[in-house]
Amino acid sequence: MANVFQFCFIVLPMMFSLSVFNVITDSMLTKTVPSSDTGTMLGLCASVQSLLRTIGPTIGGFLYHNYGVASFGFIQFAVNMVVFVFMLRNMVNSKDERRE
Fold it and tell me: Which is the most buried residue in 23, 58, 72, 76, by most CB within 10 A?
């Protein structure tokens, strides 16, 4: 970013997308618990988001300082592979259960 206009141009869509993501995850998580535990789940969601926003920049700064920009891509690749393998195993297990 070279000036404040570019910063504002980038920040507004990011704020909107993070807000939409927050609403979606909160609604999904509150629907998975009984109605008596909805407040507890909303409190936990708020706590986890605050924790991630506190720890995330620290971890990012450490990775950038010690390993460079490429470390973000390697970590993203590793996390995506773990999620892919997990989803693939669940899909295979569900197909096996349907056959039986």
Answer: 72
CA distance 44 to 17: 21
CA distances in angstroms from 58 to 31, 54, 64, 69, 86, listed in the order given: 32, 7, 10, 15, 28
Which amino acid is it at 67?
Answer: Y
Mean predicted lDDT score pLDDT of the chain: 88
Quote the CA–CA distance of 37 and 35 in Å, as a whole number.
Answer: 5
Q: What integer is the mean pLDDT of 60-87? A: 94
How far, rounded to the nearest angstrom, does the alpha carbon of residue 91 sit from its chain's CA centroid?
A: 22
